[in-house]
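Q: what sequence does this backbone want?
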């Protein structure tokens, strides 16, 4: 059942969150004699909820933007650090069955997430290649006092290369030919060749991702056998099973959202999120999941190579500029020139946002990668030491 069915509307979602927070306050007051362990686990659930409510609360123009993706990664890093501390503070529980098996399963999912981090960094590099083509267009049409046929010819070539490079790899060769029809058969052929060279470069950027590797299959592997703990498991693990399940769900959602937003090899969104509604954070996470799926179903996003908002804006601006360039007759009228310069300014603003956001995003992806590695190593060493002593 979609999250919107559960909420009824965004307004009722807001009321449910307010009610949730009031319940949390009463819960904390009622458990003033609770153990530090119980308070720590409850605080983790509360913090996860607040982070995902914050992610959900953005408007449609901010969802899946570079700034939102960075906020998503901040959410993951914060949750991961709290989870790491909980494991360290509860070694006596963590290193005994059945918790040790749950922790091992989580770390196996983390290994798959590392591959996805590498693939996402490849996608960021691909966006950088697109930015170079955008800069050619901006240089040709944005920095010239007089716009002539030579400038438009150079800009058109870059726009064709960009349009083909941004095609989802599942689109057909016929779609490529359709996009290039107005530029002639020779230009179309050379642009397809350039696309294949760019795509080959894209595939070779990551040493850990082979040609047969699939982001969609990797996500499915992370989600396989991910089930909410039963009552007896919660009791047997002193509540830690709930914390591990929560972190598993966060890992799956964050990696899924990254694959949805950023170009990567064999993208796919067909991951089933089956989260029981009684978890505090479930409504916000499932609502975000539904919103991202709604974006992917939009007519102008269906064949996109990534749902990142800046990718959508680049595609929209460059298509508009290419159509305008195709209709140009020389010499330009003042009205046409003003329209061209306006479209170039719009593209320039998007390019500036990409330029400012891409490097920080890559640094965050790198930090997520290293944090996962460090936490996994630390956890496995702790488990190994306890088992050895036993």
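A:
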């Amino acid at each position: 059942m979609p999250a919107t069915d559960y909420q009824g509307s965004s307004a009722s979602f807001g009321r449910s969150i307010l009610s949730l927070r009031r319940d949390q306050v009463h819960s904390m007051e009622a458990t003033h004699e609770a153990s530090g362990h119980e308070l720590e686990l409850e605080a983790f659930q509360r913090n996860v909820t607040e982070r995902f409510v914050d992610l959900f609360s953005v408007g449609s123009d901010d969802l899946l933007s570079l700034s939102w993706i960075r906020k998503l990664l901040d959410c993951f890093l914060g949750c991961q650090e709290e989870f790491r501390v909980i494991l360290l503070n509860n070694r006596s529980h963590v290193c005994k069955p059945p918790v040790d098996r749950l922790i091992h399963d989580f770390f196996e999912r983390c290994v798959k997430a590392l591959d996805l981090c590498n693939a996402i960094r490849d996608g960021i590099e691909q966006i950088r290649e697109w930015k170079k083509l955008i800069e050619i267009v901006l240089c040709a049409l944005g920095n010239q006092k007089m716009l002539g046929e030579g400038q438009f010819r150079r800009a058109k070539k870059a726009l064709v290369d960009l349009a083909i490079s941004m095609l989802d790899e599942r689109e057909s060769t016929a779609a490529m030919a359709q996009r290039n029809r107005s530029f002639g058969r020779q230009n179309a052929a050379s642009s397809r060749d350039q696309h294949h060279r760019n795509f080959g470069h894209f595939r070779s950027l990551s040493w850990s991702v082979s040609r047969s590797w699939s982001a969609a299959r990797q996500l499915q592997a992370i989600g396989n056998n991910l089930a909410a703990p039963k009552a007896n498991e919660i009791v047997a693990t002193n509540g830690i099973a709930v914390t591990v399940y929560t972190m598993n769900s966060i890992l799956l959602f964050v990696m899924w959202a990254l694959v949805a937003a950023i170009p990567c090899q064999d993208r796919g969104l067909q991951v089933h999120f089956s989260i029981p509604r009684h978890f505090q954070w479930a409504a916000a996470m499932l609502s975000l999941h539904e919103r991202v799926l709604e974006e992917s179903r939009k007519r102008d996003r269906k064949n996109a190579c990534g749902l990142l908002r800046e990718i959508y804006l680049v595609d929209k601006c460059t298509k508009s500029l290419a159509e305008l360039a195709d209709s140009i007759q020389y010499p330009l009228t003042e009205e046409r020139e003003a329209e061209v310069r306006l479209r170039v300014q719009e593209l320039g603003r998007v390019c500036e946002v990409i330029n400012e956001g891409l490097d920080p995003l890559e640094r965050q992806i790198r930090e997520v990668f290293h944090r996962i590695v460090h936490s996994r190593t630390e956890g496995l060493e702790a488990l190994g030491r306890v088992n050895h002593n036993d």
